[in-house]
Amino acid sequence: MGDKRVVLNKDHFFQRAERLYERWEKEEDGLDAVKSLAVAYGDSDNPYTKSSAFHTWLFGHEINDTIVLLLKDHVYILGSNRKVEFFGSVVTDQYTGRVPPVSTLLRDKSDKDAGNFEKLIDHIKSAGGDLGAFVKEKFNSDFVNAWNDALTEHDINKVDVTLAFTHLFAVKDDKELDLLRKSAQVTSSSWTAARGKYVEIIDQEK
């Protein structure tokens, strides 16, 4: 998260989460195969991971060394103290539309989060079925690697949900469309100004 204080847009979070849960409820794009979804995110050599896109799409920022576990009846977010504070505005014990209650878990480095992993895995087992994840992604993070090892040790079967989230991210809301239009206008204006200078330079050389 860096030294600069970042803020989670509560409305943005619940609007996006609503879209995710609506798609999950309709069991689209293979989401019918999973009863829980987990996104573990850490440092990676690949800046274009789906986990990174998920964080930017839902939170507006990439939040390193966190685990987001989405269940049909609850959302759990595991992170350090500062990161737990970041998510404070969306913590609730009530449903918000289709979005279930949201809770945070504070990392415990004394046992390398073994206890926290156990809690999350118990929730996954209680939900039944398979766990949706971005199974092909690799991270340079002891935290994320330890989480994946814990899933393996508990025989949690992971199903790749990359395609489902690719389709989810492809649907743009009004704010995203407005940003795209503004970006296109800026690009067009910049190119028009630059082209005029290039033509002027070429004419002077002649």
TrEMBL record:
Any one Gene Ontology molecular-function term assigned to this protein's record: nucleosome binding
Keyword vocabulary terms for this entry: Chromosome, DNA damage, DNA repair, DNA replication, Nucleus, Transcription, Transcription regulation
Domain FACT complex subunit SPT16 N-terminal lobe: 8-165
Cell compartment(s), UniProt: Nucleus; Chromosome
GO biological process: DNA repair; DNA replication; transcription elongation by RNA polymerase II
Superkingdom, natural source: Eukaryota
GO CC aspect terms: FACT complex
Keyword DNA repair assigned: yes
Principal location class: nucleus
InterPro entries per UniProt: Creatin/AminoP/Spt16_N (IPR029149), FACT-SPT16_Nlobe (IPR029148), Spt16 (IPR040258)
Known partners and oligomeric status: Component of the FACT complex.
Family label: Belongs to the peptidase M24 family. SPT16 subfamily.
Role noted for this protein: Component of the FACT complex, a general chromatin factor that acts to reorganize nucleosomes. The FACT complex is involved in multiple processes that require DNA as a template such as mRNA elongation, DNA replication and DNA repair. During transcription elongation the FACT complex acts as a histone chaperone that both destabilizes and restores nucleosomal structure.
Name used for this protein in its record: FACT complex subunit
Originating species: Caenorhabditis brenneri
